[in-house]
Amino acid sequence: MTLLWSHTGPSRRTSAFNPLLQMEEHEDDQYCFQDGNSSCRKYTLSTSIYITLYIFFSLISAVTVFLNLLVIISISQIRQVQTPTNLLILSLALSDLLVGLIVIPANTVAIMEPCWVLGKYFCALLMFTSFICTSLSLGNLVLMSIDRYVAVCDPLMYHLKITVTTTMCCLAITWCCSIIYNAALIKMSVNVQVPSGCFEECYFVEGFVWVNIIDLVISNVVPCSAIIPLNLKIFVVARSQARKVFSATVSGDKTVQASRSEKKATKTIGIIVFNYILFWNPFTYIFCMFSNYKFASFISFLPFINSFINPIIYAFFYPWFKETAKRILKLNKPILFLFLGVLSNQIKRVK
After folding, report:
1. Taking residues 198-226, what's their average pLDDT?
2. Is the pTM of this model over 0.70?
3. Does pLDDT of 342 surpass 60?
4. What is 7-54 written as a DSSP string?
5. Is 204 inside a domain boundary?
6. What is the mean pLDDT of residues 147-170?
7. Residue 272 · residue 313 · CB < 8 Å
8. In whole angstroms, what is the distance from residue 158 CA to residue 146 CA?
9. Which of 38, 48, 268, 295 could bridge to 291 as Cys pair (CB 3.0-4.6 Å)?
10. Quick one: which of 205, 17, 171, 155 has its CA closest to 82?
11. Is pLDDT above 70 for 18?
12. Residues 150 and 234: beta-carbon distance below 8 Å
């Protein structure tokens, strides 16, 4: 996480890890400040590229919000689909919704505009939200992997071990730990004392290399060391069970149907995990470190596309999501009003 933000724009304060980000100064450079601070040089894009990219990023943001709202409303409204697995999907959709609402729009401004004009506190908020979404996604994927591991490897005990209450407690712990950890990370690392005038001034203190290393271990190495072995074990066991399903007799039709349902859920979670690792792999950060700053900016945006893809995966593999989405769209009501209605009902239930 931390490596993405230290070099997203042209800077005189180039990271020691990335000499390729240093830029030559030109006499005709324009600056964000009148004092001619070279750390605030402006760069320009052609009008056609500028408009095209803004439209593209805006569409990604809007569709991400829309699709994840559909997921949240679908699971919240129908009690029959409020299983432990789907509650984990609901939590992931909430973090993806934050990405679409805050992170993608702010990143769009950061990439497209030469100067960071949103202020130092929004800089910290943007990083905080971005890091929370990353942590929550990884936390949810760890819980999803555990859920599928128990469902596939110990199916008889699944309903005793993995309950709705247990899942909600685990999710609450995940959200709390993510908020506390990332708040501490931002407090230690983000320099909010520098007046924000350019995007690159929204940066991490470069001297804290140990923070980057610890964060890389906690945010990537530890979760992936749990996610990958669990899913490999799930794959091996599921493959073995698939052979048994094919040899099932007619008298075992119900068992076969149940096994197919579990197999579909396992396959869906497996694709979601693969999708996340593909976009958020630590090599993405390392690759950014050795890219030029413009390319690094767009590569750093790429992982957020993950939040756009997840609801599409649900649509392909979950019939209940397709049916619920169709019913919601037929209501001809703004989806935001439906979401607020769901939120209001949930608050009343808690009270």
Report:
1. 69
2. yes
3. no
4. TSS--SS--TT-GGG-----TT--BSSTT--GGGB-----HHHHHHHH
5. yes
6. 90
7. yes
8. 11
9. 295
10. 171
11. no
12. no
Domain of 183?
A: 2-19+63-350
Q: Which of 221, 233, 71, 219 is nearest to 146 (CA)?
A: 233
CATH of the domain at 319: 1.20.1070.10
Of 266 and 101, which is predicted with more confidence? 101
What pLDDT shows up at residue 143? 92
At a CB cut-off of 8 Å and minimum separation 6, what does 332 contact? none
* Neighbour count for residue 229 (Cβ, 10 Å): 12
State which amino acid sits at residue 41: R
Residues contacting 248, CB < 8 A, separation 6+? 255, 256
In a domain, 27, yes or no: no
Look up residue 270 and give its two tokens: 């497996």
Give the chain's domain count.
1
> Does 51 fall in a domain?
no
Higher pLDDT, residue 262 or 53: 53
The C-alpha torsion from 125 through 130 and 134 to 140, rounded to 10°, is 70
More confidently predicted of 20 and 325: 325
Q: How far apart are CA 66 and CA 87, in angstroms?
A: 19
- What is the reported pLDDT for 53? 85
Handedness of CA 40, 45, 49, 50 (dihedral sign): positive
